[in-house]
Backbone:
């Protein structure tokens, strides 16, 4: 149903496109803007929603921000896009991203970097005069489009944090649902065992509403959770929460909710800027009735390395299809080359079509899958993935639907319903100004940005970023110290598989 909140949005198709026309030149969030369409009837009638450019949209380009697919126009809609169109949404355009979703700063794009549009604290100067910072990646265009008021919501993908990190840097809400709840059909694969379609919006209730439209079983996605699974998982969540401790809950208070604070999510790399606001947000949850419990997830520090081995291995296999013959922009070898060797087309196509970061991942992933390295890298990373999952299962009150036997013994005394932690180790980093800034060292720095987001991806858990008060509020409350650079700070809520509603509920309490 059309919620009253939506009625405040303008559904004049021209208005939103005008904002895009004004701001996109400097933000670079959109890589394609669809021409105005007649508004269809439906619960999302005329609501402008942007789509990351690795999600297929009929009639618009789907480039994955790669030279490899620069001219590709999809003949069909991804299931998620089809569902939104059916509800009447105005699919307003395609958003910039890191090439094939690989990156954390949205600088690896054939369309150029996305500039973080956050500007709420500038006084006197316009934000355009200020320091240029990254919008985060890989769904940086989607995050910036929402943050700049160019659309009501945007879809992105989250493989290892690509929704939560840019949402945190841009000061908006980003929600990665439990793996398998939202169809991946028509979404260009990066690492199938981790890829999730995810939602960005200005507030939790908007994100939740869009999520409810796309959280539907799709037989075309072999990893999609079936209706039975959804029903059974939801029953076990209800049972777990209501029987154990939520009987007494009233209204919107968090009475009876136990929130875990994982100590490993406050690593040495965490900028001191982040600490104060996160602590205050946790105290606000406590004042709303939640019980705060320190917990430990000891395998956390291994998650990042395991993620990069697994994601790269899957990517190297997925990206093999771009060979210039079946898929991808073909680059024909120069005059004089031996054309009988198709591998030459393959090599020329892939050298020209893939950017530096994608080539690096393909090499890394291919190596991890070779006979010599397989046991030490790929299998070892799979083992770490299981340890990370076990860590989560040992602290959650609600059993893991897919492995109930790994559940903790004493749910009431020691376990928690959700986890809360900082979303990123710092505020948005400055945009690298020259190509040289993206050399090896800077690259490693970018990987570290994902340290707080990859564990939930490996364990396929629902995870939500909520922005903590903006600078103006912090200033009014006298909470600004010299460490505070005024840029957005995000806090994450993570729950057991299938507890998406609970995660969103705690997220709303953080707003
Ligand atoms: N930054 C991570 C990577 O580069 C995550 C990407 C993502 O979630 N798509 O792999």
Residues:
């Amino acid at each position: 149903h059309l919620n009253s909140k939506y009625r405040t949005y303008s559904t004049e198709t021209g208005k939103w496109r005008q904002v895009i026309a004004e701001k996109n030149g400097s933000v670079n969030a959109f890589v394609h803007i669809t021409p105005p369409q007649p508004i269809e009837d439906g619960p999302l009638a005329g609501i402008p929603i942007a789509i990351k450019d690795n999600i297929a949209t009929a009639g618009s380009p789907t480039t994955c921000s790669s030279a490899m697919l620069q001219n590709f126009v999809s003949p069909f809609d991804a299931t998620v896009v089809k569902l939104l169109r059916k509800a009447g949404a105005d699919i307003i355009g395609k958003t910039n991203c890191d090439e094939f979703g690989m990156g954390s700063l949205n600088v690896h794009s054939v369309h150029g970097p996305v500039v973080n549009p956050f500007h709420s604290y500038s006084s006197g100067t316009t934000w355009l005069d200020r320091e240029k910072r990254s919008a985060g990646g890989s769904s940086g265009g989607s995050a910036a489009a929402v943050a700049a008021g160019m659309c009501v919501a945007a879809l992105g993908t989250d493989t290892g944090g690509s929704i939560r990190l840019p949402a945190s840097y841009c000061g908006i809400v980003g929600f990665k649902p439990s793996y398998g709840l939202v169809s991946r059909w028509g979404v260009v694969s990066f690492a199938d065992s981790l890829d999730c379609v995810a939602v960005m919006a200005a507030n939790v209730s908007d994100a939740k509403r869009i999520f409810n439209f796309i959280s539907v079983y799709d037989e075309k996605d072999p990893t999609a959770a079936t209706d039975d699974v959804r029903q059974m998982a939801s029953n076990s969540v209800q049972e777990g929460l209501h029987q154990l401790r939520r009987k007494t809950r009233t209204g919107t208070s968090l009475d009876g909710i136990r929130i875990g604070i994982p100590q490993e999510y406050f690593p040495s790399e965490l900028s001191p800027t982040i600490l104060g606001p996160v602590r205050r947000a946790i105290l606000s949850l406590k004042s709303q009735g939640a019980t705060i419990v320190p917990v430990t997830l000891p395998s956390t520090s291994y998650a990042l390395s395991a993620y990069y081995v697994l994601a790269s291995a899957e990517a190297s296999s997925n990206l093999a299809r771009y060979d210039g013959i079946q898929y991808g922009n073909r680059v024909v070898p120069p005059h004089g080359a031996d054309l009988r060797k198709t591998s030459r087309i393959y090599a020329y196509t892939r050298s020209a079509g893939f950017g530096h970061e994608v080539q690096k991942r393909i090499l890394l992933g291919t190596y991890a899958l070779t006979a010599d390295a397989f046991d030490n890298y790929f299998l070892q990373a799979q083992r770490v993935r299981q340890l990370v999952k076990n860590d989560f299962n040992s602290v959650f009150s609600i059993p893991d639907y897919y492995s109930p036997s790994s559940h903790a013994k004493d749910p009431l005394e020691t376990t928690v319903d959700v986890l809360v932690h900082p979303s990123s180790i710092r505020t948005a980093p400055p945009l690298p100004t020259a190509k040289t800034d993206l050399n090896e060292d800077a690259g490693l720095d970018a990987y570290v940005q994902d340290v707080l987001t990859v564990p939930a991806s490996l364990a396929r858990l629902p995870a939500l970023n909520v922005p903590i008060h903006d600078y103006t509020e912090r200033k009014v409350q006298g909470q600004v110290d010299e460490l505070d650079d005024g840029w957005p700070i995000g806090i994450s809520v993570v729950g057991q598989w299938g507890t998406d509603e609970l995660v969103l509920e705690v997220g709303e309490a953080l707003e």
Remarks:
- Residues 307-374 form one domain.
